[in-house]
Structure formats: structure tokens, C-alpha cells
Amino acid sequence: MTYTITLDRAACDGIFACLVRDDRFTEREDGLAGIEGEAADGPVSETATVTVSFDDDRLADAEQAAAACPVDAISVTEEGES
């Protein structure tokens, strides 16, 4: 199963509830959340939206991280969903 995690940095408040639910989320130097697999070719703006696709069995972790985000900065969609 392929799914996509989208992280809206403009909405992120750096509360980091996502970090304890899915270890793919990280605390970046700018005080906002980051996610494993995001482009590493330079600094990412705090207003950027980061989208990363995964093909693993950790969908439940991603969904828990999204549900825990109090500002709804994280969304998870399965491939084929619109």
C-alpha cells in the first residue's frame, strides 16, 4: 500500500505531538516539524508544504501523528484517494 503524508509548515506550531506517534517526524532547527524523506537539497521554508510518499506498513503511525496534531498540519492519504 502506498500512502502520502503531507506536512503544512505554515500551519505547524512546533508542538511536536507527531514525534511521539511516528518516529519519521523530526524536530528541525527552525523549530518546526520535519519528516523523513523530505528533500534534503537545501533549506526548507517554514511556509513550505512537504509531501512524502511511503510504501510500508506504518500507515497507522502516520494516521496517529496526523490525528494528534492540534493545528491539523498533517494529512495522510492512501494512493487512489481523491
TrEMBL record:
What domain of life?
Archaea
Q: Name one Pfam family in it.
A: Fer4_15
Please report the name of this protein according to its UniProt entry.
Ferredoxin
Origin species, per record, is Halorientalis persicus
